[in-house]
Structures are given as structure tokens and as C-alpha cells.
Amino acid sequence: MDSSSLTCKKLTVIAVLAVLIQVFGLGFFVLGFFPVKPALSGFSGVESFYPPGADSAEFQNTTNLSDSQLKYLYQELSLVPPLFDRLILLVIDGLPAEFVLGKDGEPPPKSFKEAMPYTRSLLTKGRAIGYHAKAAPPTVTMPRLKAMVSGAVGGFLDVAFNFNTQALLDDNIIVQFLKVGWKIVMHGDDTWLKLFPGKFSRHDGVSSFFVKDTVQVDQNVSRHLVDELSCADWSLLILHYLGLDHVGHLGGRNSVLMAPKLREMDEVIKTIDLNSLPTNNNDQGRTLLLVVSDHGMTGNGNHGGSSYEETDSLALFIGPTNFGSTSGTTNKANQVDLASTLALLFGVPIPKNNVGMLMPETFISLTVDQQLRLLELNSWQLLRLLEAQLPGLVCENFLCDNFRDDGSERTRGYSSLEETFCCLYMKAADLHRSWKSGEEKRSASGDNFHNILVAYHDFLRTASEWLSHRATDKPVGQLIFGVAAMLVSCLILLSLLFLLGKQVFSEQNQQFSSANDDLSWWHLDEIFILVVIVIVVISMGSSSLVEEEQYIWYFMTSSRYLLSLRKVMQHIATRTEKNTSATLGPKTNNYIQICSIFVILISGRFLRGWHQGGVNWTNLPDISKWLEQAGSTYIKLFQLVSVFILINISLVSLLWSRRSKKNFMTMVSLMHLFPGMLVLHYITKYQDVAFGTGSYDATLMAQIIYAVLGFCSTTIVVAVPWCIPFQNRTQVQRKAWGLCFRDSAYVIGLSYIYYWSLLQLLLQQPINSMPVLFLFLQVLASIWHSSGSNQHLRQWVEVATLYYMGMAGHFGLGNTNTLATIDVAGAFIGVLNHSTILSGILMFIITYASPMLYLLSMVMYTSVKDTSGFIVSQEGNIGSLLKRTLGFPCLVPLGLNSIFLIAYTIVLLLMRNHLFVWSVFSPKFLYVCATTVCVCLGVSVVASTMFYICLVLAYREKLQTRTD
């Protein structure tokens, strides 16, 4: 396509088509790369008690057996009597194992240790066995519950399904318990009700997402506790407490509410334990109390990523008598090990898709024959799963006489994968067979028994690790198609950008050829913008740089404006050397540029030091930590100062609107002042109680602020183009139309960024109030820098710089490329009852505060570009104006995002077998996808606003022409 034929209509249609292709390709890739992990259909039965490959004719038909008959059949086949008769599963959401068991052999922090004295006494007496049960990412509730009950590792996109839980159809211990006639009661997190609809005899569910509630959400569970403990009609009681997780989201690990909440949980454990101990009046059987957590939490109380703090979940077995194990609190396991352990403890088949291994310390009280039998059953189950996923795994085909099974040989590929598994299993099976035949002396203290244990554990550990980390088969054709579609979209957008730049460059050459001979040369700042793209793309291939991406954006944005400062100073020096006297206009522009650059650099430095972002350096001191140590009084003071300064800057900025009517601007000023005062009132009166039990007034106030912000912004957008005055007819035909366009864009653009900043001051964590103000200052300074710069500087450079600053500000607010830094608490401000859609929208608004702020600033940015030369006397000039003003602000963000999107998609494809693919690269890809949504939404708002302004002004000009 020739650049001269690139009309506004063609540009719009092709750009929209490119975006649709991009979204289509991205969807194809995501569905192909993150499929639901394949699972064996059906449920385990009597075949679980026979070795793989056994003749199915030997299996007893169980279809006509009653629940009790099936239960006794399982016990007869397992050869091991159940250790317990009833199970109480106590889930304390978000409880790090460190709080109960300590870390690295050290006891828990003093405040936490003193908060759970009864639980600590159980560990000391040997009544309890504690495990650091490592949870697999993503560390959010729904996939972690699925892992505990099924023993299977879910797909990574379970983090998205966590907000819309579907029924669990795979084999799991809940179904296995129901098959043997258990009655199950559940109180707590309603995620259980969604996973197992219709499976509970009694239930009382509470919402897991309404994080403002830290009290009632647990009281709703505890109110049933005493009554349920006195009942004999259930075999499994599930209690899922959410309050501790909510405390973490609101105040972090060190919240003042954390120790009281731990004391409350300790009292719950004490109540359950004392009421479930066997007595003369209690013949309900042996009861196992299993205290677990679905995940841990980071220092600020969030979770979702793969750090130690987030994956360090708890598994605490509390029995009526001593377990016989003295290891106490140093045991380690995987969360998926719970399913196989519970199945073997209660004599039911292990779920089919379980990838975990039993926790051996819980079976110490059994005889040596029984312990080996359980290891055998676990090995048979994992071998069946291996055979299903490795068709070449036929152990009869391998000769293992000379097999060397040390880990170093296997790591170096001494044998094939199938041979490794078969020989490890056959070694354990042969040793066990020899033991059972009586050829070996049966003694738990002998070397022979120890050798069998080691052999079984070696096979179980190797199989479990491989099954847990095995990458699912991905449809290569679908992935390639998705990448190709995104690549085509990227090329289309870049081609449009190139053609538009070529057209603008040609017009500038014709208009300014005598005054600007250097328009054909590439300048340093333009080269720098392209270098940034290359550096960011290269950094995507490094897991460390993905984790610490913020440093790249901080350095690049600071360097960009240092180059601008150097350019301004060179211009001033050149003029001085030539002894030329500048007019007032150029001098003012230079002063504006220098001042705006210093505002940007200083604000950027504060933003960089506010949070130690990323993963590796979060423990280092920063401004936010200093303020938190200083206390909430200082934080609130900073909030109030931020809102006050924000209001005043917006009112002063409105005065710079050149040609608006005084009465009209007074009304706009009031519409800026009123919501600002409401936010001030909210912070002063309601913020401290916003997450308390009596927060109805705070919620109502927040809803009023939402409504006022929505009404004011809509009113200003709709009314401003109608109220900006034209001047006389001569000017209308020459310059006035363009000036009205600029004034309308200025007022609307300023309102956009002001209202967006007010919304962030309401939703962001209180510690982020000053960073929000710094972002607002940076936006205004960047726009004023553009207004004072050379009008013939290539516009795409300025727009790209704004995009880069939006990314730097994203990390300046404390965001990272891990899911743990997503602010869940703010997503419930103004939400009276849980709404997944509404809370998801608020969560998106909080997370992408900075990128969206800079995208919305494009409306104001267009107002500082010279449009006075456009005349609307001929048809098509509106399109020319829109193309010149909207082309770069829309195409540059879309083009840059498409480059980063396709580059990272290819990186993710290449890293699909990388060790950190699920912990580092996949979370980053989710952020890249969300950034794409953010850019598309921001560009849509900017384009719609500018189209509306042009249509209204064109209509008004037409009416005025008819009147005249």
C-alpha cells in the first residue's frame, strides 16, 4: 500500500482487523499451551490391590456389593487394617507451615509460637507429626484443594478457574470415601461445594473471595463445631477456615491481627482434639485430625507464585495416641502426597491420577510387613500411571541385572526413561518378593528391611517427581497457528506505523524543507527507543531478568530523559555560541523542557525506591518499609497530602485551558473538586474501618465515589466539545476549529488522568498513595515536555516514551511478574457482596493503574500538538486531522505491545521444557496477555474520545455555517 493512499478509514479498518487477528491468535496459543492435564478416566477399585497386568478375571465383581461389603473387601485385599475410623480435615487457608513448625530447624517466631501453645504441645508429646508440604504453583485455593484430594497436579490455568470453580470429575479420595459408605459434612469455603456438588450430607458454605471479612467468615464455621463433634452420623468432617488468609491479604504476615487469628485457630484445634479423644462414653472410633493449609503467603500476605513462602503449606497429623515418630517438625513432603497417604490410612484405593507417595512417618506404628505392603500398593498405582503415559513402558522387555540406579547415572542418561522406571520398580519388587518368601530374616532393624524401604522410596520418588513435572503434550499445529496469527498482526501494525510515519515525514519535508535539513537523519533519541525494544526482547529469554524486569524499565526511562536533557542543553549552548538572541517563546519552551525533565527524573527516582520489587531483593529496605515501620498515622498523612496536592494540581492545570468560557470552566473545576473531597473524606473517616465487620458505611461511601467519578467523567466527555466556543467565522475557516479540538482534548484528557488517579488513591494500598501522585506528576511533566519540544520531532518517539514510562510505573507501584503481588484486598472496596466479575474488574484496574494512566494521557497529549493548520472546509479533512493526531498515539502502543507479545510467546514456546516454565515464564505470559487487554482497552477509549470530539465539532461547524 502506498503511504499517500493511507486514509483515516483504511487505517482504522486495517488496525482493528490486525487487533482481532492478534486476539484470535493469542486465544489459540493459550488454549494450546495451557491445556487441562490429561487424566485417566474412571475411579480406582479392586484392581488397585493387584499388581499391574494382573488378569482382570481375578477381580471380584463389586457392582452388586453394598457400601459396607465393599469396605470390608478393600480391607481384606489391602492386608492392612485401617489405622483410623473417622477423619476431621481442618483447612486453615493461607497458613504457612513456618508459623507452626518453624524453618530450617529453628522454631517459629516467638509471637507465632506463643499464639499456638496447644498445637506446639501436641508436637512435643509426639501426638502430632508435622510436614512442610510443598504446594505446586499456582498457589491459589482451588487447584491446591484438587491436588490434596486427587493427588494430581493441575494445569497452570487453574489460577483463572479459581474464580469460577467447576465440579471435580477426576478420581479423588472424597469419591473413594463415599463409595465405602462414608457420610461427609462440610463447613467453610464454598469452593468445596463447587468442587463436589451434592456430595455432602450437611454443609454451610461461605465465600472465599470476600477478603474484607476476617471475623464472621470464621465464626460461621465455628458455630457448628461443638454440635458436629457430638454427632456420630459422619465419617469425614471438613472445616475450612478463611480468616487467616484474609488477614494476610489485608495486612501481610506481620499484621496485628495475625497472632490473635492464630490463637483462635489453636483454640479450634484444642476443641476438636479434646472432643474427639476416645472416652468411655465415646465409641465413635479412632479419629484422625488432619490440619492442612492450601498454600502459604508472602510478606505482604499475597500468594499465587512459586516462592518458598507461598509454597510452604502445612500438613499436621494429630492422632488419639502417639504416632511413634520423633522427627516432629522437620519432615518434608509434597502436597500431592496427602491423597495417597489418606487413602492408605483409611484402607481405600489410591485415586487413579495420584502422583504422590505416602508419608512414611505416619505409618511407623504398623508392622514391617504392613509398611512394605503399603509401599507396594503405592508403587503399583504409580506404575499404572506411568504405563498410561509411557506406552513403551513394558518391564518384561528390560534386563536389569547390570542396571546402575544411582542418581548421577540416570541424570546423565545412562538408561532410557522407561528402563529407569522399570528397573527401579523391579529391584524393589524382587527384594520384597524375597522378603515375603521367607528367604530374608524379617526384622525392622535389619539391613534387608532397610534395603527394601530404600528401593521402594527410590522408585516412588523418581516416578512422583517425573509425573509431577511432566510437560503435557502440546498440539504443535495449534501453537504454530497461534504464533503465525500474532506475527501477521504484528507485521500489519508495524507496516501501518511505517506508512503513517513515511506520510508524515513526507509532509514535513515539503513544509519545512528549507528550515529543517536534518529531518531525514536518525536522531539519538529515536535510535534509543529502538534499542530499548531490542534489550527488552533479549531479556525475555532470561528467567532472572524476567523476575527483575523492573530494573530495565527504570534504567531505560531515566536514560531517555537524560538524553532529552542533553539535547536541550546542547541547543541552548549552540545558541549561546552563535550569540543569537532567542525570542520569549523558544526561551519559555526550553525552561518548560528542563523543568519537566527534572520533575520526571526526581519522581522516577522516588518511584524506584518506593518498593524493592522483583523476587530476589524484596527483603532490602525501601521507602514503603520505612513508612510501615513509622506507623499508620504517617501513611494516612501521606495519603491526605497526596489527594490534596492532586486536587490542586488538577485545578491549576484547568486554568491553562486557553479559550474556554469562564462559567463552563468553573463548573468543570467543581466537578474536579467534588470527587476529590469525597476521596479525602473517605480516607479520613472510613479507611480504617473499610475492612472491618461494620464496614457497610465505608462500602456505601466507596460506591458513591464510584458513581460520582463515573458521572463526572461521562458528563465532561459528552459536554466539553459542545461548550468550547468557536470564534468568528473567518477563524472558523482557518484556525479556530483546530484550537477548539485542542481545548476539548486538553480538558477531557486532564479529566481522564485526574479521575483515574483519584480512583487509584481509593483502591490502591495506602502505602501507594505517594507513588500514584508521582505518576500523575510524571504524566503532566511528560506532556508539557512534549508541548515544549521541537514540533517536528518524530511523534512516535514521544508516544513510545510514554508507553515505556507506563511500564516503569507499573513496577513502581510494587507489581512484579509473579502472581503473588496482585492486590486482592483492594478489589473488594465498595463491594458489599462478592461478585467475581466486579472484583475481577477492580483487581485489573489496580494492577494496571500505571499503563492505563499513560494510555489515557494520550488524549491530553494530542492537545499539545499543533493542529491549527487544519481547515474543515473540505470533506475529508476530519479524517486527515484524526489520522495525524490519533495515528501515532494508537498505533505505537499497539505496535510495541504486539512486538513484546509475539517475542515473549516465542520465548515461552522455546522454554516449554525449562525448569522454571511454570514458576517464572508462565506467570509472566499471563501478565503479557493482560497487558494486551489493557492496551486494547486504553487505545479504544482514546480513539472513541477523539472521534466523538471531531464529530461534535464538525456538526457544530456545519450548524454555524448554515446560520451565517
UniProtKB/TrEMBL annotation:
Domain of life: Eukaryota
Residue stretches making up the GPI ethanolamine phosphate transferase 2 C-terminal domain: 526-948
Keywords assigned: Endoplasmic reticulum, Glycoprotein, GPI-anchor biosynthesis, Membrane, Transferase, Transmembrane, Transmembrane helix
Residue intervals passing through the bilayer: 12-34, 479-500, 521-539, 637-657, 664-684, 704-724, 736-755, 767-784, 796-813, 841-864, 885-910, 925-955
Pathway: Glycolipid biosynthesis; glycosylphosphatidylinositol-anchor biosynthesis
Listed InterPro entries: Alkaline_phosphatase_core_sf (IPR017850), Phosphodiest/P_Trfase (IPR002591), PIG-G_N (IPR037674), PIGG/GPI7 (IPR039527), PIGG/GPI7_C (IPR045687)
Protein's membrane topology: Multi-pass membrane protein
Keyword Transferase annotated: yes
Family named by the database record: Belongs to the PIGG/PIGN/PIGO family. PIGG subfamily.
Protein name per its UniProtKB record: GPI ethanolamine phosphate transferase 2 C-terminal domain-containing protein
Originating organism: Datura stramonium (Jimsonweed)
